[in-house]
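INPUT
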Amino acid sequence: MIKIRDLEKIYRTEEVETVALNKISIDVKEGEFVAIMGPSGCGKSTLLNILGLLDDPDNGSFLFNNIEVAHFNERKRADLRKHNIGFVFQSFNLIDELTVFENVELPLIYTGVKAGDRKKRVEEVLDKMQIMHRRNHYPQQLSGGQQQRVAVARAVVNNPKLILADEPTGNLDSSNGNEVMTLLTDLNEQGTTIIMVTHSEHDARYSHRIIRMLDGQTVLENIMV
Amino acid sequence: MFKNYFKTAWRSIIRNKAFSLINITGLSIGIAASLLLFIVVQYEMSYDRFQPNYDRIYRVVTQDKFDKDITYNSGVPVAALKALRTDLPNIQFGALKSIYGSQVTVPSAGNATGNKFILKSGIFFIEPEIFNIFHYDWLVGGADALKDPNNIVLDERTATTYFGNWQQAMGKTMVLDNAITLKVSGILKNVPANTDLPLSVLVSYETLKQYGSAYNHADNWNTTSSNFNVFALLSPAAKAADIDKALLQFSKRHYDVMQTNSVKRNFLQPLGTIHFDRRFETLGDHVTSKTTLLTLSLIGLFIILMACVNFINLSTALSVNRSREVGIRKVLGSNRSQLFAQIMSETAVIVCLSVILAMGIAWIVLPYIKHIASIKEPLTLFTPKTMGMMLAMGLVVILLAGLYPSFVLSKFNPITALKNKMVSASVRGVSLRRGLVVMQFTISQVLIIATAVAVSQMNFISKADLGVNKEGVLVLSSNGDSLIQSKQMAFKQQLLQVPGVQSVSFNSDAPSSDNTWSSNFAYNHQPDEKFQVTLKFADADYIKTFGVHLIAGQAAAECDTSREAMVNETLLKKLGIKNANDAIGKEIRMGRNKWLPIVGVMQDFKTNSLREEIKPLMITSNKSFQFLTAIKLRTHQLPHTREAIQKIWAQFYPDYAFAPSFFDEDIAKFYQQEEQLSLLYKIFAGLAIFISCLGLYGLVSFMAVQKTKEVGIRKVLGASVASLLKLFSKEFTILIIISFFIAVPVAWYMMHTWLNNFVYRISLSGWFFIVAITGSILIAWITVGYKAIRASLANPVKALRSE
Ligand SMILES: Nc1ncnc2c1ncn2[C@@H]1O[C@H](COP(=O)(O)OP(=O)(O)OP(=O)(O)O)[C@@H](O)[C@H]1O
Ligand SMILES: [Mg+2]
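OUTPUT
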């Protein structure tokens, strides 16, 4: 599903040049659950942003479902993104002005799903995430764990093939964190590919494979049994 | 999709209550103000446009070129009418003569002497041909009603006033100036108020032919009265330029043979310019210069621009807080154009709300504005034109206010937008905001300077020393006939018996008036001078009654016809006479009249409105022109004195209505239009300044939120409240100073030009500019101060924790 080769990302500011990704090569197969770990500043988020088509690399190749996307323009990336990829962030990133229901509904609006179908889909996922009773609440009225469940619901509502999660449990206590990890595992078992950045060895154990990074490169890959 | 846009739009308006309130207040006031100005301007522009032949109607006017100056007259000599018809047979001509202050007596059941009405706004002796040129609707009759002598036509309103209802009026008789019996032969539908030809009482022109001498209407080439107007209807194929050429030949043929000291030319004045050309007298109630309309339109444009600037400033500032939302939406697959549409629709929601509010404001304020702008038309907001304007304005504002913020926000990079909130403090956003603030302050300072200058000039004029005494002089007018004149002496004796009356004078004109009666003249048996002399006729007590000062000689003796003359200093100056005493005993004559000895020289007083220079003046007595009675009153017991005067008037002149006015009030009327304009300027300039303060307040509030943390840190480090205030106001103060330097030349040029309209004017002193800069800095500081003090007084620990 994902095949990147010699990918480079360099941040240039006036004084310094930061090599965030240094000729990194990774493969992810469909249906895999991959965890990315590494010390702060090693380039995990940068990698995830590129994988999620939020950012473009400076060099190298990125095949997404066998299509070269490394140099797609913003419009094409947005198009590919909204049909194929869901995101979960450490800080939830829900829109404060919208209710739970409306937040989850948003990706469906952007992909042009009809209103009637949208309602059905949203209710389905909210049910699955056990947050249905909070459908008309606003994000501030929810606990962190509930907010993250909404964020996961929003990420999966479009049935994406790939979910990218950047420290999804970073802001949660362990019981809420475990709940989210169970959700992700369930999704993976139903066939969704998941790539997750985490600092927690405990969470990483939910995955099939751990990619360890240092200074913009992969240093180690352990396969979980 | 749109439902979703509007939902988020609505919620974000609610969430940012303060900013939305500022935006909606500013926009609605701005839109309402512009709309009202639009209504005023478009009303002035609409004058006589309801005439179907609007583009083909012209007035034949006269230009008099003297050695040094040129005068313009809206009329032509009476004899020219016939000549025009003979010489230019392909053109439809129609003539009318307006007379002001006449009296009509209407028979009344309850009143044996009949009801009397003074027609201050004029009656028209009018040819039926006028109705081939102008189109009017008739209730009864038509142009033919004015074919025969002694016929009168009334409009519906006047007929109702005189006879109770207009149906009753037909066929009734009434008496004009106690001499001419007229029969009502037609009823005209009320003429719209937006006309310079306010026809309401029309008498057939044939009647005037019989009573010409009573109304100074002589069929000759010598005198040109601005009250005698000839209108022309050109055929669709005719070109005005060709007719003007023909009129030049016409003028040469008819005027150059006369030996005068000026070159007289006729030319066409298009109907479309009559309402705007101040060179000519108007038959309507006012002339508006295009500059005034342009100024008002500009103010309207400025106000709406300022409101848009506020919107842009606040939205781009706020976008910092919204970057996260934009980031999330992008991550979820929204593309730029969708985001753009979303933010535009938010703008649209705010603008629509403002438009609705603006309608409400305009609806409430319109009656006042109508009053100030003296618009008589029953104007309403809900005409297709104003509605269209509203719609157009709404759209333009949506684009103007929404485009830039939408552009900026939708461009955000999602990763950076999600990472932190401080995205749009990007250099470009800030410098644009500064630029817009500078623009706002420039506009407000120009407006402050302009308003201050206009108001001071108006004060200057209303308080200006005319050189005569203008207080406490009551003026009674009557259209004189021999009867009035024969009773004058006895009338005066009776008046002087009233304790409150100090002196009484019969005259043709007050010292300062809009009279334009002038004549060519000769001095000391020389040939005619190259300039004209203004004429006033008055008895000996004129000097005493109006407090005119004599610098040499004495008042001219009182007599029925002219025997002695007084002149003013300006006349001597123009003649090159240095010593006033040298003129005493010399002779002067007007036109081809008798030579009169000069017996007195008057110290200069303002002979006309202060827009014009003092004119060379000659005063002599001639009973047949002295229709005005000026009464100098003692200041105590005014109402009592007035009552006594009215009684005496009724006793002497039962056939004449008592219509007194005070001299100073008559003078104030000269400047009524300026007075109204300066009020309009004051109101709308005030609004513009208010809107720019509103924007400033919004920006500062935003700054205060942004700087909460900085202020907290600084306070922990020991900063004083004063130093924090400085932190807030420094930038704005600099921006104000920059805008001041842009505003000064603009305002100077504008007001310099405006003041040039007045001969007597204030000088553009530095004070106006100092007031503007200190005023705007003060306003800004007050605006900034409140927010800044609140921010700096906040508990620093809280401020730090909240981030
Ligand atoms: N916009 C940027 N401009 C400049 N440098 C950047 C930018 N974003 C990231 N970097 C740099 O690139 C490197 C990789 O950053 P990245 O955010 O990918 O790290 P990370 O592995 O996600 O760290 P963390 O675990 O702390 O989230 C860091 O050195 C960071 O300073
Ligand atoms: Mg990271």
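end of record. The interface with chain B takes residues 49, 52, 54-55, 74-75, 78-79, 81-83, 87, 89, 93-98, 102, 106-107, 109-111, 154 of chain A (CB under 8 Å).
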